[in-house]
Amino acid sequence: MPKLKLGAVAYALVAIGLLASAVMVLRQVGPYAGVHGWPLVATAVVDALSGLLFAVGAVTRRGLIADDGPWICRSGWVLLVGLTAAGALVAFLSDQELSPWPTGPAVFLPHFIRRLQESYYDGRSEGERELEIRAAVRGEEPPLAR
User: Fold this and answer.
1) Are 86 and 105 in contact (CB under 8 A)?
2) What is the tens place of the pLDDT at every residue in 67-117?
3) CB of 44 closer than 8 Å to CB of 52
4) Tell me: the pLDDT tens digits for 119-128?
5) Using an 8 Å Cβ cutoff, are 76 and 57 in contact?
6) By the 8 A CB rule, do 80 and 102 touch?
7) What distance in Å separates the CA atoms of residue 24 and residue 19, rounded to the nearest whole number?
8) Alpha carbon distances (Å) from 54 to 46, 84, 109, 122, 130
9) Which of 62, 61, 64 is CA-nearest to residue 83?
């Protein structure tokens, strides 16, 4: 079973935010009140697909930049970069005021969570090794083997 837990929560929160953004775009709420036509639909599609991508990362608990698992978990970050570029392109080409948020900052989330996860497990294994060394010096059984 994959070890990603708090990362799955972060992925789920971003997925909820992106899916809520897609709904806000389609309902023309807030900053999207005056948006109409193809930019409205394209922005909603980019937000919804990005949200679904993060939801896959949360449900599989592998994230979007995993070492193993399905292709979407190993290379999902590439799709996320592509969706972010598409959102920025829609905002640029549109004659209406559109913002690609929160897709832009979300691109960095998979790498950030992966680094946090690696640091956590490296520190944990280092602590376990230290406990084993101390137990060996004292002639005791390691505390994690009990």
Assistant:
1) no
2) 788 888 888 888 888 888 888 888 888 877 776 665 666 777 787 877 877
3) no
4) 877 888 888 8
5) yes
6) no
7) 9
8) 12, 13, 10, 25, 37
9) 64
Place of tokens 């640029």: 92
Q: Which residue has the tokens 């829609």?
A: 90
Question: Residue 46 and residue 126: Cα distance in Å, rounded?
Answer: 42
The DSSP string of 88-118 is HHHHHH-SS----TTHHHHTTHHHHHHHHHH
CB atoms within 10 A of CB 91: 20
Q: Which of 93, 17, 24, 22 is nearest to 55 (CA)?
A: 17
Q: Which residues contact 42 (CB under 8 A, 6 or more apart)?
A: 86, 90
Q: Angle at Cα 108 formed by Cα 94 and Cα 105, nearest 5°?
A: 40
End-to-end CA distance of the chain: 23
Average pLDDT, the chain: 82
Helical (H) or strand (E) element with 85: helix 71-93
